[in-house]
Amino acid sequence: MKRLMYSGTGLLLLLLAFIAFNITSNTLLPGARLDLTEQKLYTISDGTRKILRDLEEPVTLYFFFSERASKDLVMVRNYARRVEEMLKEYERVADGKLRLHIIDPQPFSEAEDRAAEFGLQAVPLTQTGEQLYFGLAGTNELAQREIIPFFALDQEGLLEYELSRLVNSLARPEKPRIGLISALPLGGGMNPFSGQATAPWVAYEQLQQVFGVEELEADIDAVPEDIDVLLLVHPKTLSEAALFAIDQFVLRGGKLMAFIDPVAESDQSMEAMMDGMADGRASDLAPLLAAWGVSYDPERVVLDSRLGMSVGRGQGQLPARHIGWLEVEKQFMSEDDTVTAPLQLLTLASAGSLVPMEEASTRFEPLLSSSRHSALTPSSRFTRLEDPETLLQGFRADEQIHHFAARLQGPASTAFPEGLEGREPELTEAANINVVLVADTDLLTDRMWVQVQDFFGQRIPQPWADNGGFLINALDNLSGSEALISVRSRGNFSRPFTVVEDLQRQAESRFRESEMRLQQQLEQTEQRLIELQQNQDPTQLTELSAEQEQEIQRFLDQKLEIRKQLRDVRYQLNADIERLGTWLKVINIALVPALLTLAVLLWWLLGRMRRRTV
């Protein structure tokens, strides 16, 4: 009876202690949490802390969320709670320089009018007829405004970046100025095939959010003095005067980022279509690259069987391995450079190779590189490429690492020592230049890294690679602002099954070898049939000889045998993956509980042994 009373009293005390602990923690530590994710997705980054602590003038944030309208939307309310907690953490870290107002815009209220005045997006709820506000507006002492019209659920991975970008924009009224020269329609244009207007590229829209962008002509004779960073995208139409102006801009300390390409697949200009050849879509900075100590062949593209993307070939067909479209994973990026350190995945299409010259005075620091399963191929192979697997025919890796992007720093000389058309160069050398070169332009196109959805008239980008982050990181770095770099590209909530992908890649390789062997045998047999028919009597062409029948039967037998081998390869692929899944289930369902049980038993035995010794 006493034991029962003690046990009941103990359970009651434990229950009361548990309740008291929850009340105390919710009161004193409302935002406390333990972040066990590998990328620390729920922890405010150092870049955000720097932005908040460096605020010179107060920033005011207005968080609008419709509490009553969202009472039945559990996922929306959970996300709103996370946004509110993060904003409160921002307010705490800013130490008085950031003021937060949480507003519930009731229908027909002044708060709702205020939300509409800021330009926030109201989403109608069909089940209640009410409107849901879930956005953020911010102002600074100069009455400038920045907004996030609506927090989309599928953009949770970019939450900290969007909040920090908004605060940083209000804290830095004068945005760094980017001078843009491009032969591609980054800002939107006209589709030459459909005649319809095209939307701006997402990378360009993000560029405008962070920087002041001034578009320059391709025949400029001088870079404006107020330009902080010069951005070149596919500069295939630059005049010699423009090259001279860029040369002098870099030598006087101007920062440059240039995207060149042996095959710009997004180049739909009239010149490229009329030319019909790969070199009609190539761009180069030949005299400048030579002066900076870089070799680049605009007629050669990097193929990589290790990094090749899997692309669809239509309904009913197996996906193809495109070894000209590459997925550059983190291990092939520079971990020492702040531009690429926070990134996880970049995708490239028909990229070129940058090679440092031995006699160069500049330091060549690779940013993006290939694996050793790579080789160079003529860019002409990409002209009207229909089946990407044709790139595998005759492919042999050269066991070299090719560099897609690099940073150039150090002393450099002018590419125009004699001047230009009577114009003497103001500078002939510089002690240190800072240039970022990228041998691909297609990585900036939407199809290579982001999917855009329409959300009540608002374009919502859903990135699946870090191409946009790479562009903004590099320009942030070159313009002298690095605070947002550690914040960007932290939103990779999906974790790929890399082991399964490796198994699929290996099986596809075996499948492809068998398929090519079958194709070769088919061609040989057809050639043999043609030879037999040439030796046959013309009056008996419709009849098959015994030799032809034997040849056909032999080929059919071989074809059936190879098809059986292909089925075996596929079965082995599924068997390897299923075996891996079985082991994972055993580990999670049986092994982990067994280890925990064993640990508890050992703890109990050790306790008994201690009590006996006492």
Protein architecture, described:
The protein folds into 3 domains: 142 residues, Glutaredoxin, CATH 3.40.30; 308 residues, Rossmann fold; 100 residues. The chain is built from 12 helices and 23 strands. The chain has a 7-stranded mixed beta sheet with strand order 9-6-10-11-21-20-18, with helices on both faces. The chain is globular.
Rg, nearest Å: 31 Å
CATH architecture of the largest domain: 3-Layer(aba) Sandwich
Number of helices: 12
Number of strands: 23
Kindly report the CATH topology of the largest domain.
Rossmann fold
Please state the overall shape, judged from the principal axes of the Cα atoms.
globular
- Beta-strand residue fraction: 15-25%
- Level-1 CATH class name of the largest domain: Alpha Beta
Write down the overall mean pLDDT. 82
Summing up helix and strand content along with how strands pair, one would put the structural category as alpha+beta
What is the number of independent domains?
Answer: 3
- How do the strands line up in the largest sheet? 9-6-10-11-21-20-18
Oligomeric status: single chain
Tell me the span between the first and last alpha carbons.
28 Å
Bin the helical content: 25-40%
**Major β-sheet, in short?**
7 strands, mixed
Question: Would you identify the regions where 5 or more consecutive residues have pLDDT less than 50?
Answer: none
Keywords: Coiled coil, Membrane, Transmembrane, Transmembrane helix
InterPro entries: ABC_transp_unknown, DUF7088
Protein name: Gldg family protein
Pfam family, one: DUF7088
